[in-house]
Amino acid sequence: MDHFIYKDGVLHAEGVAVTEIAASVGTPFYAYSQATLERHFRVFDEALAGMDHLICYAVKANSNIAVLKILGDLGAGMDVVSLGEYLRAKAAGVPGDRIVFSGIGKTRDEMRTVLQGGIRQFNVESEPELAVLNAVAMESGVVVPITLRVNPDVDAKTHAKIATGKSDNKFGIPIAQSRRVYAVAGAMDGIDVIGVDVHIGSQLTDLEPFRAAFLKVRELTEQLREDGHNIRRLDLGGGLGIPYAHSNEAPPLPMDYGQVIRETVGDMGCEIEIEPGRLVAGNAGIMVTSVIYNKAGEGRDFLIVDAAMNDLIRPAMYDAHHDIIPVIEPAVGVELNAVDIVGPVCETGDTFAKHRNMPPVADGGLVAFRSAGAYGAVMSSEYNTRPMIPEVLVSGDQFAVIRPRPSYDEMINRDKLPEWL
Asked: In 3D, which of 282, 311, 323 has the Cα closest to residue 403?
């Protein structure tokens, strides 16, 4: 469920007409619904009710500080994969003891800064990282809590570019080697082994890969306890998918996901961490764009909009589907036409949809891309020297710009000419 619905023939974000936002900030822009963000977090919290747990929002999905503050104020932890994300979470008021540091390429400088600022745990992904973290912890005079991220070699049945739990993926320590690596970690003076971490991929629409991975985590936890490790926390990652198209085929609900956790590891006496991102933020956001031209082509028609692949790269990168709807509600029974919806960037890949059935939208009209709250703004760029588009937060009948659109002067003045030019 989200809070983007037609009222009196106009698409609204909660109580605000999208046309009002467009008139104020221009297009394209992202708009997020605070009520949807809060609801999605609470659904996960309810799914794990009765279990000792912490929901660590995956900051990479949408890292705007306003979004992080909304979730942090509800009690969310944060799963970060860079120093920048860590500093964003701290800036949003999230304490270090609710922040988990993941990612395969943590540097010494990142480790030092995070250890100084406070951290809940490091999710360690390799033996070299473990050795460096131990050295940095000892230099800093601290003992750092860690889990080891194990790679369970489970096929998540998702897009190849967002699968992370197969043996040929770059993530984690092969589960067959993990007991040996845990023994190494357990002998280190700067390391406190507290748990096991697993994450098998993103946009999963089937619960069985989760079940298979969690059962492997259960077996490993039992073995590690036999080896003398005090395993008291299980970080089960994220990855639960969202419906990008309004169809009868919907991914599993968080409540069903929570039941899989209960059935597989719920009786192990461990605190449970999960790291949802897409399901919290994805359907809490839309991208709104204006039609520049309706162009008739040879055998196909084009809807050319002022948003481009640099604003929303998912369709170009993942062949991702987003429902695209007019902001002004079409009349009942209006004839639909198949169009290619494309942006103005000089790349054939700057195509959002092909042969998409759409009602007529005149030049200057507005269309909205649904399910754009995750992996939209965070993956955007200034390719073709196009300004990053604004992000807007809506709460009830009010809205605010939470990241402004830079001016061309601001963009260009970031470049510096060397003295010899």
From this structure: 311
